[in-house]
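lol forgot to send this yesterday, sorry. struct tokens for the thing we talked abt
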């Protein structure tokens, strides 16, 4: 039988230790996300994988916000974040800083996530789009690559927070190899 670990046994690092830890070279860009729960969940998942930053764009709400905090569970205190009125401005800044821009979207000539190879010479910015409209076409056009999560059921649609978890886990594993 496996005994669950207590919170004291999890060896959690402090906020200060987190801030001084080497970050995973990934920036998450949220392109017009309307759900506060999705935003909070993204912060929490970013914390789990020690992600560099989250860029909040357009209608995407910003901390502090009670509904974001409910799902973030304090991760808004650990993850660096920045707000942009326009997603294109965030993408421009990331390109100038040498990031590979990857939209997470279903598109012509997309690369399946399981087949995507991480370029170890570049940091990567992954863009997740609006719950209904997805990543804006203008942003898809500005992307270096479009990555698609393989799906085999009838919906071919995942919640943003689920997509963030899948993509970050996959990229984290590939980067840490």
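and heres what i got for the seq, position by position
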């Amino acid at each position: 039988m496996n005994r669950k670990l207590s919170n004291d046994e999890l060896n959690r690092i402090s906020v200060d230790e987190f801030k001084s830890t080497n970050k995973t070279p990934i920036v998450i860009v949220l392109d017009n996300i309307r759900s506060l729960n999705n935003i909070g969940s993204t912060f929490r998942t970013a914390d789990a994988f020690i992600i560099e930053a989250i860029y909040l764009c357009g209608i995407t709400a910003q901390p502090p916000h009670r509904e974001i905090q409910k799902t973030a569970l304090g991760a808004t205190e650990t993850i660096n974040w920045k707000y942009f009125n326009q997603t294109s401005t965030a993408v421009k800044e990331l390109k100038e800083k040498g990031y590979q821009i990857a939209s997470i979207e279903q598109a012509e000539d997309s690369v399946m996530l399981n087949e995507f190879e991480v370029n170890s010479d570049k940091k990567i910015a992954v863009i997740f789009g609006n719950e209904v409209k997805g990543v804006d076409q203008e942003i898809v056009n500005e992307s270096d690559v479009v990555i698609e999560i393989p799906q085999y059921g009838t919906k071919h649609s995942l919640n943003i927070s689920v997509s963030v978890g899948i993509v970050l886990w996959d990229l984290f594993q590939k980067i840490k190899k």
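The helical segments are 15-20, 36-48, 66-72, 87-96, 137-142, 160-176. anyway ping me if u want another try
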